[in-house]
Amino acid sequence: MIRWIVLGLLFWLAFVISQIPAAWGGYLMTRDTPLALSGISGTLWQGSAGMASVSIDGKHYALGQLSWRIKPMSLLGLAPCAEIKTDLERQQVAGTACVGMGGSLRLTDTSLNLPASLIQGLPEPTKITGQISAQIQSLRLKGQTLKNLEGKLSWTQARLHNGQSWLQLGAFAADLSETQEGEIRADVFSLEGPIDLAGNVVMPLTGGIHIDGEFAFTDTFAREVQAEQWLPLMAEPLDNGKHRLRLSL
User: Fold this and answer.
1) What ranges make up the beta strands (E) of 58-101?
2) I need a surface site. Which of 8, 22, 135, 144 has the fewest CB within 10 A?
3) What's the predicted TM-score (pTM) here?
4) How far, in Å, CA of 203 to CA of 185, rounded?
């Protein structure tokens, strides 16, 4: 008799836990982190939010609709983890997110795809198009500070509008890491197209960008962009026929 009572209690407890509202899951993911959720529905274990956004240095970036599935065993530790997906127009994110103590947010095995046109902060009248994809093996934010980053990024079908015409740039890739100062570092190189490029880009989370790289144009592209008029003013000529650009914005 006691055995059946215990078994019944276990089934009842499992049912109660399975019905914990999604708001609890939203709390676990947003507690002391830069993530914000609204329009939450479902349960703790599997739920969704009508809109998700992340705040970095006071700037809010929309992620769109978010769904999650919590890994039950992760609740036994101090860093609950969930498989997440977000969708906003042509912008998608899918991977695993873990929330730790002290406002720590960690992403692993995460993919990101978005149109390059969504990137903000470019000087007028510059516009860019193409597709940006990233594979993040590991990323950890603690509050507003980047603690770890390992991944790869690509920009394919890259085009730039300089205020007069669209320029075909080709494709580029980058290896992503973090600096000792908690900045994003991208070691960039060209894959195809009229620009032979190799260098690094450093982007502090507080804004701005630092560029240091060597590049060369094909003759046709150099004529198209009238490089002889502005290139000597912006970049240093090198003995190998390339130019070096060092720039902070």
Assistant:
1) 59-70, 81-88, 91-100
2) 8
3) 0.76
4) 6
For 163-180, how does the pLDDT look when each residue is reduced to its tens digit (9 = 90+)? 788 999 999 999 999 998
- Tokens at 226, concatenated: 């009238």
Cis amide leading into 125 (omega within 30): yes
Question: Domain extents for the chain?
Answer: 103-248
- pLDDT at site 28: 62
Q: Tell me, rounded to whole angstroms, the distance of Cα 129 from its chain centroid.
A: 17
Distance CA 187, CA 48 (A): 35
User: Among residues 66, 80, 71, which one has the least CA distance to residue 38?
Assistant: 66
Strands (DSSP E) contained in the chain are 35-42, 46-56, 59-70, 81-88, 91-100, 104-115, 127-142, 145-161, 166-178, 184-192, 195-203, 210-217, 236-237, 243-248
